[in-house]
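Input chain follows. Return structure tokens only.
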Amino acid sequence: MKKIAQSTIVGIIFFGMCGCNSVKPTDLKNSNQVTNQADSQAQKIIKIGGSSSTVTVLKLLAQAYQSQNKTVKIEFISNSQSEGAIAALKNDIIDIAGSSHKLKPEEDNGKIKYRELAQDLLVVATNKSVKGVTNLSTKQLKSIYKGDITNWRELGGANAEIVLLDRPEDESAKKLLRKYYLGEEKTTAKAVILNKEGELIETLQSTPNSLGAFSLASSLINKLPVNHLSLNGVAPKAQNFATGKYQMVRHIGILWEKVPSAPTQGFIDFIFSKEGEKLLQDNGFVTAK
């Protein structure tokens, strides 16, 4: 009985060793494949951040790119101002930053690169409830922002109080309004200040008799039910910008590390490709030359 038991134990040990030797290479190979696949998937996540004025164009491009590249996932972090997005890029929190201004000397650490992507016309628009007003002169627009004109009746519209929706002074939209139409005149204290462009757009749509300025492309892409106003008789259209008649335009650019990851480089190549250029033009943007 003792010999039989010993023989049995030896056989079990031998069988176990043979079993381990026979599956080990395959298991190792499969394990490595799973690990490599997981690493590959992780490397194909592209994180993007940007100012509220640049997110629309970047989401438009991201959607088109992801539809062609199923293994790539593009994630957007919370919107911030351009400065915040650039800081996030330099701290390796994101892979691409959207900015409504060129890279400033104090923002350049020598490791990131800027390139202009497109120009986006800024449109002055009203809630769809506003009737009888399709054009404003510089003088009229100034008077609205100063608070000298407060009723649509003064502009040929209905007897209704104008609800002015405005942006903070350090935002690109307000800077452009000041540069081309408002000058340095103080804005009325009755203006409703909205920090993000998306908030202004939502508020304009839901607030009767309101007026505000925001991205023309956003309005066209989302088919917003608002009234676009001409300024000094010039409609906010790409062709009018091309001829120099309409000058209020915001410059949109992107920044990335000078030596990006392969997935990030792939998306950047798409952004500046002929296909990316056509996509932007079809959606109301003026592509950078």
